[in-house]
Design a protein that fits this description.
- The complex is a heterodimer of chains A (114) and B (112).
- Chain A has 114 residues and is mainly β.
- In chain A, the strands form two sheets. In chain A, strands 2, 4, 5, 6, 9, 10 and 11 form a seven-stranded mixed β-sheet that branches. A four-stranded antiparallel β-sheet of chain A has the order 1-3-8-7, with no helix packed on it.
- Chain B has 112 residues and is an all-beta fold.
- In chain B, 0% of the residues lie in helices and 54% in strands.
- In chain B, the strands form two sheets. In chain B, strands 2, 4, 5, 9, 10 and 11 form a six-stranded mixed β-sheet that branches. Chain B has a five-stranded antiparallel β-sheet with strand order 1-3-8-7-6, with no helix packed on it.
- Chain B is globular and about 40 Å long.
- Classes of the chains: A mainly beta (114), B mainly beta (112).
- Chains A and B meet through β5 and β9 of A and β4, β5 and β9 of B.
Chain lengths: 114, 112
Amino acid sequence: NAGVTQTPKFQVLKTGQSMTLQCAQDMNHNSMYWYRQDPGMGLRLIYYSASEGTTDKGEVPNGYNVSRLNKREFSLRLESAAPSQTSVYFCASRSGAVNTGELFFGEGSRLTVL
Amino acid sequence: QKEVEQDPGPLSVPEGAIVSLNCTYSNSAFQYFMWYRQYSRKGPELLMYTYSSGNKEDGRFTAQVDKSSKYISLFIRDSQPSDSATYLCAMSYETSGSRLTFGEGTQLTVNP
């Protein structure tokens, strides 16, 4: 069972470069999310997509864009990377049918911006 | 002020100890309360889920919610080295289930 798959797992960027983090889930979930995790800050929501075709800003959306490509895939793009975006990024999904609270997370993408 | 406060630790206990992990929150509208466990270099996974006030037990784990005090707890009995992880509390007030607010996480080490 693949669950939630994120690529790449590691990436080093220079300030000003752009990149896209890819996420795919094979659980037929409606909702998908992008979080970043930083020491002392916990998990913070960047963007989410409650269903295919919709996206909404979370707590820390500045500097990011997202695309819900289809029901399975939700990508996160950094147009001009900054050192403040050095973090571990997690993609997650949830069925959305009942609020059981269960988010299924990927293993994370570790990004360093120099 | 953060909506959800959680002592980051680190917390170190001997094997077999009872562990108590806690979170406080400020938004009285939160109704759904969760505990996630995160092993090193992995994504979080759901451990316990409770709705409103009360207790819920699952094996060695007990989750408590006291909405009057805006305080939630996770107890681990007979702790094992395999319980060494970061524990994150999370909560939500939307029945549509679109957003969770997480605590910072408490890093726990259980020493054999």
